[in-house]
């Protein structure tokens, strides 16, 4: 299940936002999309999801030209997980997931089985009968991921999924997302935190001023020089000892 973007450009009127963006993913990749505010991350996601059809260039999902896909076909290939927010209606977690199982028909026994399976996969089946507004922000975000998985699409696009979560829930969520990638999903995830990319991503896509500044394996691509350039702050990339080895992290230079 791949995403293939070639020479993608997009403008809001006369304001150019994306400039000849090209990259390709493969199954099992968790690609962290980084860049300063205004770099084009959200616009890139909206183009891939078909929300902004007036782009130039090519986007293919699993070998299918995006322009040739209707909404149902697109939903079978790619699912979107927005930032967590408190819904207006306090549906149960199970009903929330069932909204993704088959958005075009009422849920039947197979959809119920799918919902229970993805809740089990993400470790939140015990929350199935709880109201979506009665659980924590991290649990709610996992429920949104479960809803996307219930579509049975193998491409997951996540727009800053940890933005409203506390430190512990950020890492619990990203650990689950990495496990999904390891099981064969293709995940494109935007984040403002380079340490999330170091710890959980297989690869990074770095955007700057609407173009691709770098794309490749996280540990090799996110150099000290690149991060200083992108975020315009003095910082040091350090190896932090952990049980069994080390992980990379960023330290602000005062």
Automatic annotation (TrEMBL):
- GO MF, one example: ATP hydrolysis activity
- Work out whether the entry's keyword set contains Nucleotide-binding: yes
Matching entries from Pfam families are given as: ABC_tran
Gene3D superfamilies given in the database record: P-loop containing nucleotide triphosphate hydrolases
Provide this UniProt record's keywords sorted from A to Z. Answer: ATP-binding, Nucleotide-binding, Transport
Protein origin, superkingdom: Bacteria
Domain ABC transporter, residue spans:
3-234
Q: Which CDD domains match?
A: ABC_Iron-Siderophores_B12_Hemin
- Can you say what this protein is called? ABC transporter ATP-binding protein
Organism annotation: Brotocaccenecus cirricatena
């Amino acid at each position: 299940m791949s995403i293939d973007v070639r020479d993608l450009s997009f403008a809001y009127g006369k304001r150019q936002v994306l400039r000849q963006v090209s990259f390709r993913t493969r199954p099992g990749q968790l690609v962290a999309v980084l860049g300063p505010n205004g770099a084009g991350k959200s616009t890139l996601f909206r183009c891939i999801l078909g929300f902004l059809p007036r782009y130039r260039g090519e986007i293919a999902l699993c070998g299918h030209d995006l322009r040739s896909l209707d909404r149902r076909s697109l939903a079978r290939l790619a699912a979107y997980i927005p930032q967590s927010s408190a819904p207006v209606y306090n549906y149960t977690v199970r009903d929330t997931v069932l909204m993704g199982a088959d958005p075009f028909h009422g849920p039947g026994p197979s959809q119920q089985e799918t919902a229970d399976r993805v809740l089990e996969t993400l470790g939140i089946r015990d929350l199935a009968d709880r109201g979506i507004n009665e659980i924590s922000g991290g649990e709610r975000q996992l429920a949104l991921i479960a809803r996307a998985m219930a579509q049975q699409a193998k491409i997951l696009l996540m727009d800053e999924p940890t933005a409203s979560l506390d430190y512990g829930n950020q890492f619990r969520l990203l650990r689950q997302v990495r496990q999904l990638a390891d099981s064969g999903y293709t995940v494109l995830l935007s984040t403002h935190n380079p340490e999330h990319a170091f710890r959980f991503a297989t690869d990074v896509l770095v955007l700057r001023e609407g173009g691709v500044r770098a794309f490749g394996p996280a540990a090799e691509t996110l150099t000290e020089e690149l991060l200083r350039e992108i975020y315009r702050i003095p910082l040091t990339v350090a190896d932090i000892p952990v049980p069994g080895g080390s992980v990379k992290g960023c330290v602000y230079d005062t």
